[in-house]
Amino acid sequence: MWADYLIFLLKTVTIVVAIGSVVILVVGAATRHRDDDDKGHIKVEDLSKKLDRVRQRLEEAMATDHKLLKKQRKAEKKAEKQEAKVRAKSDQDSANAKPTAWVVDFKGDMSASQVKSLAETVTAIVTIAQPGETVLIRLESPGGVVHGYGLAASQLARLKQHGLKLEIVVDKVAASGGYMMAALADRIIAAPFAVVGSIGVVAQLPNIHRFLKKNDIDVELHTAGEFKRTLTMIGENTDAGRAKFKEDLENTHRLFKEHVAKARPSLDIDAVANGEFWYGSDAVENGLVDEISTSDDVILKLHDAHRVMKVSFETPKPLAKRLSIGVMAMFDDVLARLSSRHTPYF
After folding, report:
1. What angle do helix axes 295-305 and 47-62 make, rounded to 10 degrees?
2. pTM above 0.70?
3. 228 catalytic, yes or no?
4. Catalytic residue check, 176
5. Which of 267, 290, 308 marks a domain boundary?
6. What is the 3-state secondary structure (H, E, C) of 179-239?
7. In this structure, are strands 187-190 and 291-292 parallel, antiparallel, or unpaired?
8. Tens-digit pLDDT profile for residues 130-169
9. Of the residues 176, 198, 295, 312, which is catalytic?
10. How large a percentage of the chain has pLDDT more than 70?
11. Which domain does 141 fall in, by range?
């Protein structure tokens, strides 16, 4: 019996491996023959239609007079057709239609790797949006590299330069580089316990010079320019190098403070630019945030008077990357479950 089972198992594994190999070859061939245009594309989602569909389903589920509801649906469809005709007319006539509100998601990491997608999205919006229309950024970022978030903030500044109204809503966190981006908004909205602020600069690096010296390992570092290198991981650091490194951090902090102060002139920058962070409710009191709400409610309010469209730049992910993302998500879930026994919750 066990011999038969082993033979069956080997056959099954062979078939699965063969099918998997064929799939990988097909996907690989398709990937190699992609055009440059397939490296990414703009995706547009009509959030207004999505909200209307949700409302209609709820109304249908709760309706007691189905004849009346059917009549209302007929009237709504007629109104939608009329609105479509208005949009199809000349620019002068279409001015009577609802203005568009544009929604963009930005979920930043330490390396600000999403900046390219943000740049493509901003470019798409400014080519079609009318001056005075609203762009809502749903921002989530704990900050990261200075040059990356500096460029991300510059991309948001482009929206304002094209005459668009910029609103940023923070549901979870916009700290350090995240707040550098948020500060540019005409209005900053945050959830009650969203983390904002952290206007400061930090840098750290290990130094293994003493370990190398103890093991008779020499390291030679040659530079042209007194401050080409200040602190290193393997060389012997000096007090002069440490002082210069600290001076560079202070200069970066000064630029950060000037950026925020220019964007929000009513803010007491010296009081809030000490690296400290605040929750949304407290952030309103010191001027870091203008209003307390969530992105869901902000979009609902926009939906009353706007056609709400979500815009994003999507890049195709190779099969191997999609599989690795799934495996990492499973691994993170297991770790979270194991650590939850010892982690306090709020």
Report:
1. 90
2. yes
3. yes
4. yes
5. 267
6. HHHHCCCCEEEECCCCEEECCCCCCCCCCCHHHHHHCCCCCCCCCCCCCCCCCCCCCCCCH
7. parallel
8. 999 999 999 999 999 999 999 999 999 999 999 999 999 9
9. 176
10. 76
11. 42-48+100-196+276-316
